Amino acid sequence: MSTPTIVGSLDDEQLPQTARRGRRRRASHHAEASTHHRGPLWTAAGYAGMVLVVLVIAVPLFWILLTSFKERGDIYVRPAQWWPDPVTGQNYRELTTRIPFFDYVRNSVIITSATSVAKIVLGVISAYALSLLRFPGRSVVFLVVIAALMVPNQITVISNYALVAQLGWRNTFQGIIIPLAGVAFGTFLMRNQFLSLPGEIIEAARLDGAGPMKLLWRVVMPMSWPTLVAFALITVVNEWNEYLWPFLMSDDESTAPLPVGLTFLQNNDGVTNWGPVMAGTVLAMLPILVLFLFLQRQMIKGLTAGAVKS
Amino acid sequence: MQSSVTQPQSATPGSGGPPPEVGPPPRRSSGRAWEWSLAALLLLPNLLLLIVFTYRPLLDNIRLSFTDWNISSPIANPVGLSNYIEWFGRDDTKIIVRNTLVFTIATVGISMAVGLGLALLLDQKLRGRNLVRSIVFAPFVISGAAIGIAFQFVFDPQFGLVRDLLARIGVASPDFYQEPGWALFMVTVTYIWKNLGYTFVIYLAALQGRRADLDEAAEIDGATAWTRFRRVLMPQLRPTTFFLSITVLLSSVQVFDIINVMTRGGPQGNGTTTLVYQVYQETFVNQRAGYGATVATIMFVILLVVTVVQVRFMDRGKQA
């Protein structure tokens, strides 16, 4: 049997609490029981279902991709012409000349990397303090951190907008990044990870005279890489896709990330010139899809565990 | 065990001075102070960010809901309950609440039902299921804004994919851009398409953790497939269903990107405006931040109540 792509990643301790209840340790028993007696008709129905699902998901994406290589006349034609004839890179050229496309890419990279680094560092050190250091009021602090998960973004944007505007931080990177940098979910995720580490190892390291920071870097982190990678990936995906806050903060290409830049393009061209717009969406989807292709196990681990709030 | 260095100090017993630092108790206490300050140092940046950008605005938003603030002026006059009274009396409130309900119930219900169906399907031993699992999950990681823009073209009533497919079976495309009902349909379908992978993957994880032996036992007892599904499988998936009903509800109520790029809340003014979109429009487009804050507060209270009811419902179900 081929190596399971998604099963494997869902099969360890990062399952959401609720999904794990009543779970048995043996991993091999699942599902096999339900197929052995089924007839060929049932199997055929199963394959038909799979084909249908793939069509529903893939056809729109394929259509968008094809459109991005069509000449304008081939897009605005009825009945629709599916294959680009001739194949043209015109839309991609237009995309990069009509709007400052690479500025948006640059902004996306800056915002995503700065916010992700901030969130990962803050998440790790907060989780470390909340799991392996002893101090009064620890559980209260933990509650304050995770209760932030229950506050929807939409109720905070008005007041945050006012604050950031007052600071003169609209259309600046710090205005976009700093309000997004607080991390509740990642703290929760990493704290659970740190608490799951065997206490004897940590005690032994302490007795060997490892200071708190050395303990974190030399003992705790090396045992926590898989969870950290999952946390990092889900953070990068979320920040790359972040929309509402950068949309409110940026008026132009000086700070707007790619999804907001696409909105500007759509405002200008939209319905009347789909070609470059589709080329733009293809380029916006591509990096994350490539990342997903290579790291889907870790990503799914983070996203399923990251179910509470993105 | 004392070293010779400390000998002179301890040679004067009863002097009342603090014990030498080498003893375990004082060392622990100084270590503790150090631990406390380290914890404070590590936690402070994150706590400050959460307080300043999550908790402060939450409270400030409630305060603003009792004012006539316009987002740019430095002055916000208190207006008492008038924003709330206005909201409950306005004609568009009914439409917006209805849109929110339709969108939320459809997205939560359909994505959970279809997600479970797909999880059941792709839990079977079928060739290529791993690839299909990846394909189903992929849209979930793509930017909502990019998907929204792309699907606006997919639904283009003149030149879109949907029009083309419908034409092949001789059906005219509905006007997804101009008719409010169809526009809401378009936004709902797009949202489900993007987020299906999430419910799917969570249900799949739950299925893989279920007890197959119960199902076998029921089958030997002669239970039909439907009975086994209802009486054996669903009760086992109950915690997952509960978890999803809350998380999916919270995220679909909050959807902004897809609506903003696809319809801007239109057509006909508020054809696809949900509460969250109304918060944005009143605050940033109509410059009525006080009223926008009122809608945000109402939405927050509704979400809080719904979540509490869901938790209660779950608790009662557990006891039954």
Account of the protein in words:
The complex is a heterodimer of chains A (310) and B (320). Chain A is mainly α and 310 residues long. Chain A has helices at 7-10, 17-20, 32-35, 40-68, 72-75, 90-98, 101-132, 138-147, 153-166, 173-180, 185-195, 199-207, 212-220, 225-241, 244-249, 258-268, 274-305. Chain A has a domain at 99-305: MetI-like fold, CATH 1.10.3720.10. Chain A is built from 17 helices and no strands. Mean pLDDT of chain A is 82; it is low at 1-36 and 306-310. Chain B is mainly alpha-helical. Chain B has a single domain (93-319), classed as MetI-like fold, CATH 1.10.3720. Chain B is built from 13 helices and no strands. In chain B, helix 10 (225-253) packs antiparallel against helix 13 (289-319). Chains A and B meet through helix 2, helix 3, helix 4, helix 7 and helix 8 of A and helix 2, helix 5, helix 6, helix 7 and helix 8 of B.
List keywords for this structure.
heterodimer; A: 310 residues; mainly alpha; MetI-like fold; disordered N terminus; disordered C terminus; B: mainly alpha
What would a concise description of this structure say?
The complex is a heterodimer of chains A (310) and B (320). Chain A contains 17 helices and no strands.
Strand and helix map with partners:
The complex is a heterodimer of chains A (310) and B (320).
Chain A: H1 7-10, H2 17-20, H3 32-35, H4 40-68, H5 72-75, H6 90-98, H7 101-132, H8 138-147, H9 153-166, H10 173-180, H11 185-195, H12 199-207, H13 212-220, H14 225-241, H15 244-249, H16 258-268, H17 274-305
Helix pairs in contact in A: 4-17, 6-17, 7-10, 7-11, 7-14, 7-16, 11-14, 12-13, 14-17, 16-17
Chain B: H1 7-10, H2 24-64, H3 82-89, H4 91-121, H5 129-137, H6 144-154, H7 161-168, H8 180-208, H9 212-220, H10 225-253, H11 257-262, H12 275-285, H13 289-319
Helix pairs in contact in B: 2-13, 4-8, 4-10, 6-8, 8-10, 9-10, 10-13, 12-13
